[in-house]
């Protein structure tokens, strides 16, 4: 009897535990239903949109994205243009550097001449392209002959100094360019000996006289330094040349004795070759190479 009573009590306990679990499950489901009902009551149909409205929003976003990309492309293009503007132009840089080299070359030549002839009246032109020798310093009035032995020596020294300088800036058999004497690869187009007179006397005789003075100077220089005529420019032409301008290019007032004396002069003008493109600069550099003359 006792064993039967014990078994009956155990079954009751198990049944009671099962009932408790069932009650808890039912309670949980009930609470879940209440929560679902609450959330359902909070839902508002106005928060939904039609598909056509959704598609319009998406399309607008895509259009804005495209416009932003177009604006970014324009900004990049403007930045490139700004970079192109601020970047130094190789051709302009070369021409500017060449002009500076010419000025330095003239200053060097003038300094050398003044070291040998301290009282020589020689100046650099305002344009920084020529050495100017007062005419009466080399020639007597109305004469195309060098005035005396000293003026002959001056012209001879000019020739010697030029013959030392030109190989670095010219082509031909005597070309000897290097980065020390010619760092920017400049090339001389012409060294022009120019004769000038004052305004006294008729125009044509003055023109003839100025040309004769230039020719006299050229002849003395070429006789003293025969290789001067062998220096060539980019077009394979002799760089040394002459010109006579008579009274046509005054640099002072012809109404005063001092002005007329200044206008009676010889100019030694150095003309640099000006390339028309960056490609031409490269051709100049190729020709100035030390072994360029040996190439076929």
List the helices and strands and how they pair.
Elements: H1 2-42, H2 51-86, H3 90-116, E1 122-124, E2 130-134, H4 135-138, H5 149-165, E3 188-196, H6 203-224, E4 240-244, H7 257-263, E5 265-272, H8 278-287
Parallel strand pairs: 3-4
Antiparallel strand pairs: 1-2, 2-5, 3-5
User: What is the CA–CA distance across the termini?
Assistant: 134 Å
Q: Helix amount, in percent?
A: 55-70%
- Secondary-structure arrangement, i.e. CATH architecture of one domain: 2-Layer Sandwich
- According to CATH, what is the class of one domain? Alpha Beta
Helix count from the secondary structure assignment: 8
Mean pLDDT: 83
Descriptive report:
The protein has 296 residues and is of the alpha+beta class. It has a domain at 91-294: OmpA-like domain (60s Ribosomal Protein L30, Chain: A). 55% of the residues lie in helices and 10% in strands. It contains eight helices and five strands, in the order H-H-H-E-E-H-H-E-H-E-H-E-H. The chain has a five-stranded mixed sheet. Strand 3 (188-196), helix 6 and strand 4 (240-244) form a beta-alpha-beta unit. Helix 3 (90-116) packs antiparallel against helix 5 and helix 5 (149-165) crosses helix 6. It is rod-shaped and about 145 Å long. The termini are far apart.
